[in-house]
Amino acid sequence: MSDPTPAAWPAPFGAAERSHRAALPRPVPHRGAARSAGSAPVIGLALGGGAAFGAAHVGVLAALEDMGVPIDVVVGTSAGALIGAGYAAGLPVSRLDKIIRSAVWRDFGRVTVPRKLGVLDPEVLERAIARFAEDRDIEALPRRFAAVATDLRTLAPYLLDTGPVPTALLATIAVPGLFPPVRVGEALLIDGAFSSNVPTWGARLLGADRVITVRLTPERTMRPMALLRQAMGGFDDEAPDVLIMPDTTKHSRWKAAGVPALIEAGREATEAVADEIRAIAGLERPAMAEKAGSASPAAGTPGA
Question: Tens digit of pLDDT for each residue in 201-252?
Fold first, then answer.
């Protein structure tokens, strides 16, 4: 594997003011479908973390696909990065659905011989990651993609937008004490939820004009983490253009039994804000299109 050279946050967590975002390395060109000047906006999708709650992202993607919403940029944290990488790699939503439904979440908790700062077997995670993106580089994916991890030294968000996909995914899901941290260059990376569980800012940074964000965990259940991020100048406060919040309150983060219901919850939550999504994507409402189509022949055929 080549050594990834991601766009690291330029200042320690808490010292990186919004104005410092411009100091990040080079603007990221759009690599999705070609867009001409003055055409539809570049749409970004920010997928939040939440372990098995991430199944809801599949329902979100299915609903967006049904609406015909073109997604150009995908940024994810933890489970959101896992689903997002598969989608950015071009896997059909139906394939992602099958993978998620067949996942055995408890296997991620298999204890292995204690390793450096991690006690769970990363090989289980590596095998799961291989089903989503195999050993590919982020730059080669058909959609622009990035995963958010956390720099263990500074607790700064670390945006992995180049290099091997497996490395980025292992980093964004490296829960301290469970999975070992991942070294990328000089940085030691852990789970992105510690610095930015809902990476709206990342999608904008990668060139999205409009961002649809999916939050899987109600803020009240993440209160300790949210307070930590806020106290240190956190990055979950940037407002998306559309916020999707699937109902995950009745389900477990680590049990597969709730996966079908979570997928449906993702679809329902997306359909609930369908008008907002179509508005930012420049799409016509289906009812309006049908009405316009049926009115044309009637106007030219009196008495018909």
Answer: 999 999 999 999 999 987 544 444 555 555 544 555 579 999 999 999 888 7
Burial zone of 79 (CB within 10 Å; 0-12 exposed, 13-18 middle, 19+ buried): buried
Angle between helices 274-281 and 259-272 (to 10 degrees): 60
Q: 297: phi > 0 → left, psi -120 to 50 → alpha, else beta; which?
A: alpha
Domain 41-287: which topology?
Cytosolic phospholipase A2 catalytic domain (3.40.1090)
Known catalytic residue at 191: yes
Residues 98, 132 contacting (CB under 8 angstroms)? no
- Of the pLDDT bands very low, low, confident and very high (cuts 50, 70, 90), residue 118 is very low
Q: Do residues 187 and 158 lie in contact, with contact meaning Cβ atoms separated by under 8 Å?
A: yes
Would you say residue 42 has pLDDT above 90?
Answer: yes
* Active-site residue identified among 72, 97, 151, 191: 191
Give me the pLDDT at residue 287, please.
Answer: 58
Choosing from 72, 78, 121, 241, the catalytic residue is 78
Reply yes or no on whether 2 is catalytic. Answer: no
Mean pLDDT of 112-119: 44
The first and second tokens of residue 83, run together, are 């689903």
